[in-house]
Amino acid sequence: MTTPSSTTKHGSNWPALDVKNLSAGYPGDKRAINHLTFTIQSGERVALIGPNGAGKSTLFKAIGGLIPFTNGEISVMGEDCRSSHAFVGYVPQQNEIDWSFPVTVYDVVMMGRARQSRWFSWWRRDDHAVVHDLLEQLNLSQFANRQISQLSGGQRRRVFIARALAQDSRVLLMDEPFTGVDTAAEQEIMNTLDLLTEQGITILLATHDLGRAGRDFDRVLLLKRQLIGFDTPQIVMQPNMLRQAYGGALTVFQQGDETIFIADERGAGD
Ligand code: ADP
Ligand code: MG
Fold it and tell me: In this structure, which topology does domain 17-263 adopt according to CATH?
């Protein structure tokens, strides 16, 4: 097996994620995302926002290789994504996971090693070492043997972050990790993101929390089937820009000098 450093260009200035003219969808909706072009630099932290049905999850699935794309190109760390899916870690939206599936925290994280190991071999000693380290890093060691059904929302997010990192991911896609968790768990997830940013990992994170998108990210990608905006928070978090995606589902408050945006999560934005 070749190692990432010998097959990719990620030591140099290749963008982490380069998406060109991408369209993807499903049999009933072939262009759920349509003609997207954007480039994310290595180590950047990007918030992906847009109303329900905007195609955020579809974009993640296309980048992660879970659905075929109908048009365009995706490259990760300078490599065509068909050969570089292993550099992409994907933390799915929580409602896409069957939490009753009887599997332990340890096993879920170990699943992340499957792409690293030859699939026909048994786990190697270093796979176990990687999993142990990640459980420790994400404060999950004490839950290693627990069934995932018995975890809190915040712990569940961290297990899936650990699984994604077990792949040696350089790019992490996180689909609405803050939805349905309390403030403390949200803060823990943010602390984890800081740790990953320190390690140079590129993060693309979907959220309905527009305040956080404007505050804690280098750039914001605004999506509604098409790319509406991709720029710094100062530029994207403007009423006119946001309304192009959210329409009536956007509420704007003025609090002193600060403008506060709230997106109605149920709103389709039409
Ligand atoms: P978001 O994550 O921004 O809420 P999605 O990517 O889930 O949006 O959905 C984008 C569009 O694709 C929606 O119109 C949705 O109904 C459709 N869609 C999503 N998943 C499927 C699927 N498995 N089969 C058919 N259509 C789907
Ligand atoms: Mg989604």
Answer: Rossmann fold (3.40.50)
